[in-house]
Amino acid sequence: MIYFDNNATTQIDPEVIQVMLPYLKDQYGNPSSAYSFGKHAAGAVQTAREQVAALLRCEPSEIIFTSCGTESDNSAIQSALLADPDRRHLVTSKVEHSAIIKHAEALARRGYEVTWLDVDSGGLISLDDLERAIRDDTAIVSLMWANNETGTLFPMEEAAEICRSKGTPFHTDAVQAVGKIEIDLRQLPISFLSLSGHKLHAPKGIAALYVNRKTRFNPYLIGGGQENKRRGGTENTASIVALGRAAELASSAMHEENSRVRALRDRFEQGLFATVSSIQINGHRTQRLPNTSNLAIEGIDAEGMLMLLDQKEICCSAGSACTAGSLEPSHVLKAMGYSNERARGSLRFSFSRFNSETEVERALQIIPNAIEKLRAMNRGFLAA
Ligand SMILES: Cc1ncc(COP(=O)(O)O)c(C=O)c1O
Fold it and tell me: I need a labelling partner for 131 at 20 to 30 A (CA). Which of 209, 226, 247, 253 fits?
């Protein structure tokens, strides 16, 4: 199998599996228990907190472990709404993940007002639009760091600075950015940041929310006093330990992610452009994650391509995994102004440090033929 769908989820790093195993077997103590067996688990959770904080360059006390990126996103927004109930306006963009979009839509149904920022054809918001959208009653601005479909990177520094200057809490959904690009929270006035383990070679079902120490936090899950009273629920020790190690490995692989993985992606694109006509990149050409390639391929339908490639054991995506299975064209590509036809003929390939040059070369043997086959079939269908 050739796995080019690392924005959907990633392989767990074998080193990560190694460090979590003891906590699934012998070290099953509850981190809240007072005896040494529990304290050992609490120590492991604290080490993981330090490892995640080191990746983001923040304080360990600013990290709350959660169950998924969706929970982190939801918690940040709910916290800001509770912090100032008179503020009933939110700002976000049209290209966010459904963890933000569906939540904002649900809030709109409950009487909140939402401003949806447009993006241009490269998938970028306008900072002027952002500045104009923020009002005195804006409870929170939520903007993703990197787009899961196209890899386009929003101008984080500038967006965070605008929010800071207006005194508006700022959340970034950095689920696709963390582990792929350098993040230094010491330099950025961000209130909340979400990340998710399964996008950086840790297991599914573990994630974190960064809450700036100057930001008041209102818990989303109310229960026991875990996570310094900020998130009830017995800690998922093994997965937390895994996320900590994955964060540490991401730090040391960052240079590789930005060079070797980028080179794999660029070679893949260059190879396809050299052999297949009428292909275009969806997303910003330079302000883009190093691992993501979203391609509009004229004359194909993405669903058909996915089936052909599946037969050849190549995994990639049409739009995001969460919208796959629906025939709706991607909301991200639509927001960028592309036609339904272009959106339906677009595929996302996303690479990781576990991919090799050999896999890219093999894919470059297979994919052009599959495109040609599908184009011929579609031409025949139209002629019939
Ligand atoms: C940008 C973005 N935000 C949030 C999520 C949700 O993360 P999780 O699957 O951990 O809930 C994803 C996952 O695809 C994502 O890509």
Answer: 209
DSSP state of 257: I
Does residue 173 have its Cβ closer than 6 Å to ligand 1? Answer: yes
The second-level CATH assignment, the architecture, of 2-7+254-383 is: Alpha-Beta Complex (3.90)
Give 381's pLDDT tier (boundaries 50, 70, 90). confident
Q: Measure the CA dihedral 290/170/203/70, to 10°.
A: -120
Residue-wise pLDDT for 313-336, tens only, equals 999 999 655 555 566 899 999 999
Let me know if 58 is a catalytic residue: no
Measure 174 CA to ligand 1 centroid, in angstroms. 9
Q: Is the CB of 175 under 6 A from ligand 1?
A: yes
Q: Which residue did the predictor score with more confidence, 253 or 380?
A: 253
- The CA-to-CA distance between both ends of the chain, in Å, stands at 35
Question: Domain boundaries in the chain?
Answer: 2-7+254-383, 14-249
